[in-house]
Design brief:
Elements lengths: L6 H13 L19 H8 L2 H11 L2 H4 L5 E7 L5 H21 L8 E8 L5 H5 L9 E6 L12 E7 L32 H25 E12 L11 H19 L4 H5 L10 H11 L2 E9 L11 H17 L4 H17 L1 H7 L5 E8 L1
Parallel strand pairs: 1-2, 1-4, 2-3, 4-5
Antiparallel strand pairs: 5-7, 6-7
Helix pairs in contact: 3-5, 7-10, 8-12, 11-12
Amino acid sequence: MAALVSDSLAKENNDKASENSTIQVIGGHGTNSYSNNSSYQRLSANVVTKKIEDAIMKNLDVETLSSTSNIFRVADFGCGVGSNTINSMQDLLLIVEKKHISQCPTSSQMPEFQVIFNDQFTNDFNTLFTYLPQDKQYLVASVPGSFHNQVLPKSSLHLAHCSYSLHWLSRLPKELRDERSPAWNKGKIHYTSAPPEVLMAYATQFAEDLDNFLSARGREMVSGGMIVIVGSSIPDGMPYSQVVNGIMYDCMGSILMDMVKTGSISEADVDAFNLPIYACPPGEFIEGVERNGLFSIEVIELMNPAPWLKGPIDIPVFVKHVRAAMEGMFSNHFPSKAIDELFDHLVLKLSDISQQLESCYRDGLQLFAILKRK
């Protein structure tokens, strides 16, 4: 059944979404839920665990940070749903404990730890907390709200963690929906394979978001505190069409345009929809941190996010992970029947080009950075 809307209604819906591009993963414990389809994200995060330990052991002064208060606060910004964030926080606490023992060998008392989980107001914190271990040795709090704003008291945070969250834009650039703008992204849903003006609009919005994120953390964090950042990236100067996600976004856009031809959705729907996702190259990230001025860069490098992938990609499983993380964006804009059609066709389309996808997995697509509050 065709689900057509007028151009004005499509624009109205996208205007509302663009003001706050809230990303809502699928909560609960269902078949398509993020909690049951996020193992790829956990594996990518595990790649940097040893590097995080090395950075904390070298750069975090636990003795000084604990001298004014016996409470040591750790926060995960963009925590999502499921066990990944809890495992990451427990890994961090073990490393901090190790550093405390190393730096304060005569101390008889370990700091009291508080772990804070932050994400959008729509995040399923109820499901998240069902994954907490019964024997946890730390206090827990959830703080809903956009991490582009201050969400914690001033000078209260010692260690922050942000994994695969910064690439979500806070809002879509308005130029993408303006037919008079060179950045009007007609017939596409991302900057992949789009005109350079579209890429520039995305990059400009990310730079603003990064500055807001760092400024908020700068207010919350004590001097000497650290931020661990892991996320999507790309080597400086490389077109996004040469990486797996870029190829996938092009496929999504192509499928949606095919659905326009069958009457499942309207062309206005597609023209008004853009994925609020930006993979920041390290050069732009460094410029943003230096421009903000509140943090020094202790470590920054690009890594292979999937060194465990040896052989063919299981496309149906891969698409299930993608759907768990991205369905909320599509369902806010397109009818539910269209969502099923999109992801069903995505499995078929990616299966046809699986060898091309496999050839695109490479080093340099995961950013790892350690920032220290000045």
